[in-house]
Design brief:
Helix content is about 50%, strand content about 5%. The chain is an alpha/beta fold. Helix 16 (about 280-290) packs across helix 19 (about 325-340), helix 18 (about 310-320) runs parallel beside helix 23 (about 375-380) and helix 27 (about 450-465) packs antiparallel against helix 28 (about 470-480).
């Protein structure tokens, strides 16, 4: 009862609502009150449309469907087509659909104006803030300088076919669109995604490109995002149209083109590598998003946004070089800050808003400032973003760093790269398998117990799983990094395999004295003849290699002199 009274409902109406709904749910009681049919008397405190004096409640209830009307009675406090004069709250629910009415033009046009204004803010901030020209691109100066491939191509108005390769959020799509924006008079841009399209879509684009080229003498730039997801036959479809100049091809990929793109396609395109963005680069983009009035973060929340000291630095340091992650986190932070704005700012000049809803909305919004704090940024991130893909480029980069750190006996670096992989979500058994290989390849005979450590580590990881097995992996990594190293066995097997592969003619058979002779016939033809049983004659000498390899040394160990002849 007290909660309903605090909402402004009369005590009689609140008691009736609680009795009708069983008195167990305040929400159901409130819905019962708000769903009542409008009364014909002026004393009814709650007509069909709830009073705008309860803006905190409006966001929880759907707006009533407007019905056609021909009059607006003086006693009706809220006509059906009226929108609550609270622009900050209106973003959380849809506007009622306008219907035929005889009200004045000024009243009926306000919702239409509002709908036109809120279309753009629903586009993500990272999409709205894309660079429009190459001069707005940051962090890729090695590709965009006047003497670079792209800079020269834009200056001469002649674009080549290229592959943009780089981590997510470094500007591949932005550069492709900015290139065409810089030479807009001669080129048109068509964007496809390898995730959602196929060869049929490519053919349609090519046919349209040829028609446009013949009619308007304008070339078509076909931008294909995530091009590595096309299979070999799909990538083959680009070859003839790039070759004959029907289109200018720009592909974007986060995966190594050497592994995921066919050689003929790479032969026709120039591969350009994008660098991971540094924190200063990301800070430029974030400040641009805060200061831009037309496209910036203020457009997302409908109020002016300010950020406190340390917010931009925090976002840029924890996005791992991904500008999209940083901009999305800024947008979430601003949304959280805007929701914290006091409702009293939204109640100001309520009578003026009712008489001139559109203009008063601008006055209220301009007076509200959402201040983004460091706590907002931390809440938006939840945890530090790590650029890691268990099947992608970063996967192989990190395992290589771990292997080389252990080989260099740097236990600190090895534990660090191990932690990077685990935090990125790598499977612990994959790491354990790599440690087994390392124990034999790089430690080998210098510490034969290293292999036991690695195998035991694999079994323990299999038993426990993450997160408990992290310390077991760390122990094994530290042991292998600090262990003495020997690649004698690794070089020995490599040298032996090389001799076998490069030997001229047929490989020699096993010498007769080394062959087993389990039958009489085999003994008669010489199998096992002349073999000396070493335990009975430890000082006896005999050869074990084929005649052509006598004296060849594969294993460089104290019992051997050298690997070479």
């Amino acid at each position: 009862m007290e909660q309903l009274l605090s909402m402004g409902f009369p005590s009689e109406l609140a008691a009736e609502a609680l009795a009708a709904t069983g008195g167990k749910s305040i929400l159901k009681a409130t819905e019962w009150i708000l769903s009542r049919r409008p009364s014909t008397t002026a004393t009814d405190p709650l007509p069909n449309n709830p009073s705008p004096s309860q803006p905190k409640l409006d966001r929880f209830f759907a707006k009533p469907t407007p019905t056609p009307t021909t009059t607006t009675a003086a006693t009706d406090p809220l006509p059906n087509n009226f929108s609550p004069p609270h622009p900050k709250l209106d973003r959380f629910f849809a506007k009622p659909t306008p219907t035929a009415t005889t009200t004045t033009a000024a009243t009926s046009s306000a919702p239409a104006l509002k709908r036109a204004k809120i279309c753009e803010p629903h586009v993500p901030l990272s999409e709205r803030m894309r660079p429009r020209t190459l001069h707005e691109v940051v962090g890729q100066d090695h590709l965009l300088s006047p003497t670079s491939v792209l800079g020269s191509a834009v200056d001469t108005n002649r674009l080549p076919s290229i592959i943009l390769w780089g981590p997510p959020g470094t500007g591949k799509t932005s550069i492709a669109k900015a290139i065409v924006g810089s030479v807009v008079s001669s080129y048109r841009l068509v964007c496809l995604s390898a995730i959602t399209c196929g060869v049929k879509d490519v053919r349609e684009v090519v046919e349209e490109a040829r028609r446009v080229k013949m009619k308007n003498n304008k070339m078509t730039v076909l931008f294909v995002d995530e091009v590595h997801r096309f299979n070999k036959s799909q990538q083959d479809s680009f070859l003839p149209v790039i070759e004959d100049g029907s289109i200018v091809f720009i592909g974007a990929t986060t995966e190594n083109p050497s592994f995921h793109l066919i050689t003929p396609l790479l032969s026709r395109c120039r591969v350009l590598t994008l660098n991971t963005l540094k924190p200063p680069h990301v800070q430029i983009l974030l400040r641009r998003a805060v200061e831009d009035v037309d496209r910036g973060v203020g457009k997302s929340v409908g109020v002016r946004v300010e950020v406190k000291d340390g917010v931009i630095e925090y976002l840029s340091s924890n996005c791992d070089g991904d500008a999209r992650v940083a901009l999305n986190a800024l947008e979430i932070s601003a949304t959280r800050a805007a929701a914290r704005v006091s409702i009293k700012h939204l109640k100001s000049s309520e009578e003026e808003q009712e008489t001139n809803w559109v203009s008063s909305e601008e006055n209220v919004v301009s007076s509200v400032v959402a201040i983004v704090t460091l706590e907002d940024a931390r809440e938006a991130f939840q945890c530090k973003h790590l650029a890691y893909d268990r099947a992608g480029e970063e996967h192989y980069n990190l395992i290589s760093a771990l292997h080389k750190s252990m080989r260099g006996s740097d236990a600190n670096a090895a534990v660090y790269w191990l932690a990077r992989m685990l935090e990125g979500g790598e499977q612990p058994l994959y790491i354990a398998r790599r440690l087994i290989r390392f124990a034999s390849e790089d430690v080998g005979l210098a510490d034969p117990l290293a292999l036991n450590q690695a195998v035991s580590c694999y079994q323990a990881c299999h038993f426990l799983g993450m997160p408990e097995c992290n310390v077991i992996l760390a122990q094994c990594v530290a042991y292998l990094a600090l262990a003495p190293k020997s690649i004698a066995v690794y070089r020995a097997i490599e040298a032996a395999q090389k001799v076998i592969r490069e030997s001229v003619g047929q490989n020699e058979g096993v010498p007769l004295h080394l062959r087993n002779a389990p039958t009489k016939l085999m003994k008669e033809v010489g199998y096992g003849k002349g073999y000396i049983y070493t335990p009975d004659n430890p000082s006896a000498t005999q050869t074990f290699l084929p005649p052509s390899l006598q004296g060849y040394k594969f294993l460089d160990w104290p019992t051997s002199n050298t690997i070479n002849k």
